[in-house]
Amino acid sequence: MEQLVNFIIRPPRAEYDPKNDLLDEEFMLKGKWYQRKDLEVKNSRDDVLKCSHYMPLIRPEGKPLPCVIYCHGNSGCRADASEAAIILLPSNITVFTLDFSGSGLSGGEHVTLGWNEKDDLRAVVEYLRTDGNVSLIGLWGRSMGAVTSLMYGAEDPSIAGMVLDSPFSDLVDLMTELVDTYKIRLPKFTVKFAIQYMRRAVLKKAKFDIAELNTIKVAKSCFVPVLLGHGVDDDFIQPHHSDRVFDAYMGDKNIIKFEGDHNSPRPQFYFDSISIFFNNVLQPPMDEAGAAFFDMPRDYFGKGSWSTVHELDYMDDVHDVAAAPTSSTEDVIKQVRSKRPMSRIEVPSDISAQDNQTADQEEGTGTYSAPSSSKMISFELSNGEPFGPNVPASIDDDDYVEYPLDNMADFPSNVDEEERVSMLNFTELHHFSIGFSILCILLQL
């Protein structure tokens, strides 16, 4: 159990090299020069947050520009903000991104699905407001980052607008759904016990209550203009989570559904909608009338590629350059993502296979041999009999019962209580262990 809880609150950190996986320190995008400024911000817990701010080399008229803070998902990092930068920078909207505490290269031990990340976001907003180069602020979050943005936005009505991509509506509901999504035949009492155990363990180790992560309650008190987006084929955080947030939301709102799942590249029309949304709520300044910028055949390249530009004679004839076909924003995103793909949420592949193997064994031979896995929790009845002397050979779904496991005292702790538990189908106990494995992936948001 300890290992499973650690897997939840301490998933593998995204690994990346800022020199190779972020946009260049200076780069040209659609004929204009931009820069990446790397910096550090400390949160209220004294964790150092690694951050990057993408902005024009020369601000229009030297005025402060609006900024969108990109908030990555649970398995992500600030490298995932490259798409946002490519989409928003040409509109004179700067993009700030960070590794949340416990993620990427930032300090911090645990990931908390938005609970502590909300405080990280607060520290970044405070930094930007004292920086002097930022006017209005917007938020763009994906998965865990969307939950973080919503939770912060409800507390800071000065946020100009938010894009929430694939948020969950209630963490406990999501846990329960994951059991059904991955076809695990799990008795009700085991689900309730697993969630209750994890709630207590996570609260003890990471100091946050999973039962408090309910964005529907937050949405009822949030008035920041919002654009929600969700893939129709998302079977990790299903689309109805965004629907529930949308229905409860009190402010101006819109929702977009698109083809794809939780990890799919987002379609161009969705990016266009985001660009229009942020242009409306942030009101960025226009470039000076008559300003001329070269329209490069390749819409993005770093400063290190400038010699290549000359080698290809891109600048020999300005008229030829202007007439050359240009790639779309989608092509530029593909170019950048070829260097480092967007962070993905990977469901452990052995869970469904283990459950199917168990089902085959039960149907084919009537015997069961418990799999050996460090991710599994095994039970050994003290009487030494694999199914116990009084356990029925099968049990219908209607016979499943829900036990009031409001405290750990109801869990067997001695031989007598173990005998009482042995009255339950041993297969249920096995499914309990599989259920824990399923539930442990929920932090991969």
Automatic annotation (TrEMBL):
It comes from the Eukaryota. Pfam families: Hydrolase_4. Residues 351-372 have a biased composition (Polar residues). Residues 64-175 form the Serine aminopeptidase S33 domain. InterPro entries: AB_hydrolase_fold, DNA-binding_regulatory, Hydrolase_4. Residues 324-372 are annotated as: Disordered. This is Serine aminopeptidase S33 domain-containing protein.
